Description:
By secondary structure, the chain is an alpha+beta fold. 49% of the residues lie in helices and 14% in strands.
Amino acid sequence: xxxYLRATIRKGxxxxxxxxxxxxxxALHFLSLIIFPNSIQPIDFTYExxxxxxxxxxxxxxxxxxxxxxxxxxxxxxxxxxxxxxxYIQPGQVIYxxxxx
Length: 101
């Protein structure tokens, strides 16, 4: 199949095909922005100070404060805000957990 395609696509046509596909993708993307304008709005967050208790996890704290948002995204946001390099937290540690406005 690939040999057949190479034989039928003349030099220069492949670049035109790739450029056409890229333009089509961009057109569909902009059309989706017009049809679904609210789907691209960023979610605003604030951060709630929490003192970690025994048995707490980042996932548990994130799910407790925001039940309707993807927990993995909240954990990632919380880790960045607190400059955490791992998900390990200790009792007594003060962290700021992302909370949707």
